[in-house]
User: Fold this.
Amino acid sequence: MTTILYSHPACIEHDPGPYHPERPDRLRAIMAALDGEAFTALDRREAPRADAAQLALVHPASHVERILGAVPTEGLVHIDPDTAMSPGSGEAALRAAGAVIAAVDAVIAGEAENAFCAVRPPGHHAEPMRAMGFCLFNSVAVGAEHARRAHGLGRVAVVDFDVHHGNGTQAFFADDPDLLYASTHQYPLYPGTGAREETGVANNLVNAPLPPGAGSDAFRAAIADRILPALDAFAPELILVSAGFDAHADDPLAGLELETGDYAWVTERLMEVAAARCGGRLVSSLEGGYDLDALAASAAVHVGTLMTS
Ligand SMILES: [Zn+2]
Assistant:
């Protein structure tokens, strides 16, 4: 079995404006990196659209309608100072969430052990009732809830190694003991959540905040000492990964100072828990990462490692 790669050209058409770090070239850079000989075995699939009922698993229908209804026919519409929509943004957001849903379906059906969704906009800052932080809909949370509601899975975990804390995912997961959210992130940093003391209703939030400049050793220690034991003890039936690559040393938005090789390492560790606990079932989706070269290289080692399953 190989790794499935979900993407869609519509995800390039979301353009939050000139000089915005979350730009279409991010996805172009990743797709170019995944075009090499090492990636010919990828099972490349077009992401379908998420439908209203699927988004409503996390986001109330009125909120979804408000967001999609605000997509402009020309120019930009700002949701907050960081988050803007262009005419292509609605379709991109539907494909991004649809990619994670389809990846969950495929992995649960046994069509592959794992999958990577090369999509944008990202999702982990999107709360059930609030789009923010470059994010419109929380694709990974929708995928987790889809795994439970459509496939009857009991426990689903999300591991988030984006440099920012996934406040949106945490907000949806916090009160549900059958959902685990585990995150490494720079702290303090946008969005301000993710303190160690935020533990959820049943220690189902595992926040591992790291100081600016923490580097590879501190990151690996947080994963090994805090995230992996909690993830293993939770015994997930599916692991989702919020794969942001903005903790890389070259990233302009933060300063956690990771190296490209750290993304291979963390991917291997998560695959080991997936193999032990849920038949290897792992679905990863792109979140942040704003230096094009570091982003492309990091995503490539992440996907290359997934392909070794
Ligand atoms: Zn980020």
User: Anything to note?
Assistant: The pocket of zinc ion is lined by residues 162-164, 244, 246, 287-288 (CB under 6 Å). The mean pLDDT is 98. The first helix runs from residue 24 to 33. The beta strands are 3-7, 43-46, 77-80, 83-85, 114-117, 156-160, 179-186, 205-210, 238-243, 282-286.
